[in-house]
């Protein structure tokens, strides 16, 4: 009998190992991406919107010059009045 060759099934064994390694790397990289990028960003957004007051921010935006945001309620009221439209009865 002849001893088994060292190169027998070498391509298949390297192929299997490559598939298993690539699968493990894909799972680990996905978990690392979620743990170190997605979850911290998610938590920062949650914290920001828990303390966010949109009405206060709108007042800050509208108190700036017209060039910052021209659709503020005061600016829209001025535009309507210039066109002769009634905005609201006081």
From TrEMBL:
Membrane topology: Single-pass membrane protein
Pathway: Energy metabolism; oxidative phosphorylation
Residues passing through the membrane, by range: 19-39
Gene3D superfamilies, sorted: Mitochondrial cytochrome c oxidase subunit VIc/VIIs
GO cellular component terms, semicolon-separated: mitochondrial inner membrane
N-terminal signal peptide: none
Keywords, ordered alphabetically: Membrane, Mitochondrion, Mitochondrion inner membrane, Transmembrane, Transmembrane helix
Family annotation (InterPro entries): Cytochrome_c_oxidase_VIc, Cytochrome_c_oxidase_VIc/VIIs, Cytochrome_c_oxidase_VIc_sf
Pfam families in the record: COX6C
Statement: the UniProt record of this protein carries the keyword Lyase: no
Major subcellular site: mitochondrion
Location relative to the cell: Mitochondrion inner membrane
Family: Belongs to the cytochrome c oxidase subunit 6c family.
Protein name, UniProt field: Mitochondrial cytochrome c oxidase subunit VIc/VIIs domain-containing protein
